[in-house]
Amino acid sequence: MRIRNRVLTSVLALSMVGVLAACGGNDGGDNMENNGGADNANADTNNAADNDADDMNEDMDNDDEAADEDAEENDGEEAADGEEVTITYARGQDATGATDVLVEAFEEEFPNINVEFREMPADTGQSHDQYVTEFSGGDASIDVFDADVIWPAEFAQANYVLELDRFIERDGIDLDDYFEGTVDSGTFDGRMWAMPKFTDAGLLYYRSDIVDGPPETWDELIDMAGEYAGEEGTDFGYLMQANQYEGLVVNAIEFFGAYGAEVIDEDQNVTINSPEAVAALEKMIEIVQSDFVPGDILNFDEPATHTAFLEGQSVFARNWPYMQAMTEDEEISQVQGNVEFALLPAGDEGSAAGLGGWMTMINRNSEHPEEAWEFVKFMTGPEGQKITAIEGGSAPTLRDLYEDEEVQDAAPLFADEEFVATLENAVPRPVTPIYPQISDIMQIELSRALSGDISAEEAIENMEQEIQSALDE
């Protein structure tokens, strides 16, 4: 499963400047929108939506029925009847300029709909909390907003956003055209609440001047990391994100997926206590407690990973696609020209990559739901995603766009079949309205297991009990 090394174009490099500045300022100063939401799982700050959920959920079905009736009456005519309206679109900072191009193209196609852009805080957690504050108070100033892949269930449960199925069915949107993991992230309680905008997934980076190709399985990685650590000035065989934060959960989800385990099923049943989950965590522990990782691996996050790898300290590293452009930057990389990447190694059930990326949602209190939907449909459809890919370097969630020559030319990464395969293999974190609590539970128990305080079996049993208790509250 070798992916040929390709230098990303300046478009992709520029996009990463925007990505790094767009979200997440809680991980050592590197703001990473593509870190899979690694800043968003603090239950103390991010669980505010749950406080409103119990009061509002009993009215949710009635609200949906009323909205359905309104949608049927309008049947899309409001958005196209020539009446000029203005909607507000909110998202994090975009240094690439792609948002301006996107809005201009939309307004040209829909001259009666004006889109005002509202820039949200660069820190993802701050943006999340600001949305919660405004939406819980019934504020209608934002119509459309971008959401981290771990937000939809929480916002749906809290009654902050519109259910989108009626629009999707009415306009014939085929969700099978999107990567499955991105659709799953927007689905809660059998309904679709967010449309996939762009995606991200974990990759395995390796030193091509040291090894001829990447390991196929986690067992092979263990063998190769131990064998080649020390070659070409390296100190370590493998780097990953093992600090007690959201990145640890993403890494664990990748091991769980590779060995056929899941945390919660689509019916909100806790399914983590399984032989597959124990085997996955045991493999993770084996790696973390090996002598080919740094002694302080339990302190490693994304910045620590890319810093060490760019300095030539390791043969292999797990990180997000943003690091590829950095490996070819001669000003910061000591391994330029000697790095390739591949699918993450496989377990008993194959390779699995943790899903990152962003969705688009509609504020339930929007005064212009039809116009808001037209903008969401445009942004997340072929034309809008093509603009975002070409102008912003963001990976599309629509498979067919990876066959588009202009998209491939904009970022050669998008022409790589195995990169697309990585996106196909991407697995979402647990889709639940109390995700911040579940993430905190997992972080604590995973850290205890990786540090050797408890066994894999004990950690899995603890997670099962604590997650079930949190769901029962």
TrEMBL record:
Q: Which family does it belong to?
A: Belongs to the bacterial solute-binding protein 1 family.
Q: What is this protein called?
A: ABC transporter substrate-binding protein
The family database entries (SUPFAM superfamilies) matched by this protein are listed as: Periplasmic binding protein-like II
Q: Where is the signal peptide?
A: 1-21
Q: Report if keyword Iron-sulfur is assigned.
A: no
Keyword Transport on entry: yes
Which InterPro entries does this chain map to?
SBP (IPR006059)
Biased-composition ranges for Acidic residues? 51-84
Give the keywords, sorted.
Signal, Transport
- The organism's taxonomic lineage, starting at the top: Bacteria, Bacillati, Bacillota, Bacilli, Bacillales
CDD domains in UniProt: PBP2_TMBP
Q: Where is the composition biased (Low complexity)?
A: 31-50
- Give me the ranges of the annotated region Disordered: 31-84
